[in-house]
Amino acid sequence: MDLAEMYAGRIRPGVVAALVDHLPAACAVGRELGGAAAMSDEWHAIAQLDLTVRRAVRAVAGGKGDEPKAWELPEGVRDREARVAREAEAKRRWHERAADRERRARNGEAMTLRDL
Question: Which residue intervals make up region (Disordered) (predicted)?
């Protein structure tokens, strides 16, 4: 199927939505979106089994310690790329400010509140 057919009016958007809704778990679209759509049925079953076992072990141990947490859902490809870009930009700004502070310290300039 080509989405151009939908934009040309040969296929209704509802049909495309229904087809996308029935894509298998962990398909390329699911991995792109992240979250539950990126989890295969096997992955989901293993995650549930792991959580159940950890809760049972905690209960046998007297319920002490923190409540076991479920596995985090996978991050989507686009979300991961955006996060990496944000982190790289923050790192670049930090290095830029550090170099600026170092330059001003060498020149004997006064520090500002921004430097703290």
Answer: 88-116
Instruction: For residue 94, give its domain range.
Output: 75-116
What count of residues does the chain have? 116
Neighbours of 68 (CB within 10 A): 14
- Asked if residue 23 is part of any domain, the answer here is no
Question: Hey, what are 9's tokens?
Answer: 């009016």
Averaged confidence pLDDT in the chain: 87
> Which carries the bigger pLDDT value, residue 21 or residue 98?
98
Nearest to 38 by CA among 85, 79, 95: 79
Residue with tokens 């046998």, as numbered in its chain: 60
Tokens of 19: 């087809």
